[in-house]
Design brief:
Rossmann fold; OB fold (Dihydrolipoamide Acetyltransferase, E2P); 11 helices
């Protein structure tokens, strides 16, 4: 287990503040945040390349804050690969073993095995400058993994790669983790990347860790509006008042199953909002007349922005529904959604998904 306790670090105008994080043995943890929030600094403090101004780093209960990198036995893979340009692929991968005193023949044998595992055996004699971005990243991973580190630290490892290569390397990272059971801390600014790999997520904003949890916990219960905004959640609604099971949002009373006096924002998934040309026969407590403001493509679906008086919402619909509803700017429709589909951001209570019927399923 890795534990960071109240880590503080100042570098010029940047300040890492009271950063506390625990990683479980063998888990894949994604640390997610925009560029410049200090994710790489966290990795370098864990690796021993930087000393915190305050706080401590513990590995399985032992304080390793003052240990040099070579005694921690963690492997750090940077976004820019950091390969040695004057060494062949084989010698790059074998470098860490040779620096630990392993004989050249044994080091090269282990390096060849690792290159085979990562399906790049054919690159053994190539120079780094002749490799593609995806090939360089595999070589960097091979060099990190061949020393059998206690933990793998990944600094935006897929950021510089095109979509197809990123997809293949995500599968590779997932496979490596499943095979080795190694603890992995993967920092990224890419929400999809973090979700596809992380068993748990941490959201980092402004030099602080804002929230941790499973992907479902983080997306269903963002702790505040800044987290929700960073995650790209649509329909984050500021609450003006709470009374008798209703929240007032932009002057509209909305029934909310789990509302409390401390509720400050609501969030509803766009796919939970059903649009219809006529009032919809449903047990849902929220049904309003609305008008179409505009729409845009959202993958294979369409995101339709609607207005319930001054309350703006976005619903996700299929192209078939778009045609059937004759969607046009200013068109009058009805929107329907359950009180349990609304989530209270920042509250201890959160609406359950159990009885929320997804509108996309109803639309067929």
């Amino acid at each position: 287990m890795l534990e960071l306790h109240s880590i503080t670090k100042s570098l010029g105008e940047f300040h890492l503040r009271d950063f506390t994080l625990s990683l479980r043995e063998g888990e894949y943890f994604s640390l997610l945040g925009p560029t410049g929030v200090g994710k790489t600094i966290v990795l370098e403090i864990i690796a021993g390349l930087l000393r915190p101004d305050e706080g401590s780093v513990h590995w399985h209960g032992r304080d390793v804050t003052s240990l040099p990198p070579e005694q921690r036995r963690f492997a750090l893979v940077y976004q820019d690969y950091a390969l040695f340009p004057h060494l062949s692929v084989l010698r790059n991968v074998a470098y860490g073993l040779r620096s630990r005193g392993i004989a050249s023949t044994d080091a090269c044998d282990k390096a060849r095995q690792m290159l085979k595992l990562l399906t790049i055996s054919h690159l053994v004699d190539r120079a780094p400058e002749t490799l593609s971005g995806g090939e360089k990243q595999r070589v960097a991973l091979a060099r990190a993994l061949v020393i059998e580190p206690r933990m793998l630290l990944l600094d935006e490892p897929l950021a510089a790669l095109d979509l197809n290569v990123r997809t293949r390397l995500r599968r590779l990272l997932r496979d490596i983790h499943q095979r080795t059971g190694m603890t992995v801390l993967h920092v990224t600014h890419d929400v999809e990347e973090a979700l596809s790999l992380g068993q748990r997520l941490g959201i980092m904003l402004d030099g602080q860790l804002q929230q941790t949890g499973t992907p479902d916990e983080v997306f269903l219960r963002p702790t505040d509006q800044r987290v929700a905004d960073f995650l790209g959640l649509r329909n984050v609604l500021p609450v003006e008042a709470v009374r008798n099971g209703f929240c007032v949002v932009a002057g509209v009373e909305v029934a909310v199953a789990m509302a409390s006096r401390s509720t400050r924002h609501l969030w509803i998934r766009p796919e939970e909002i059903l649009l219809s040309a006529e009032p919809f026969d449903s047990s849902a407590r929220n049904q309003f007349e609305c008008r179409v403001v505009d729409w845009e493509h959202s993958g294979s679906l369409l995101a339709v922005r609607i207005a319930v008086r001054e309350l703006l919402l976005t619903a996700i619909i299929t192209h078939t529904s778009f045609r059937e509803l004759a969607i046009a700017e200013g068109a009058d429709l009805y929107c329907t959604f359950k009180s349990s589909a609304l989530h209270c951001i920042g509250d201890e209570a959160s609406a359950s998904d159990g009885d929320a019927t997804r509108s996309t399923a109803r639309r067929g």
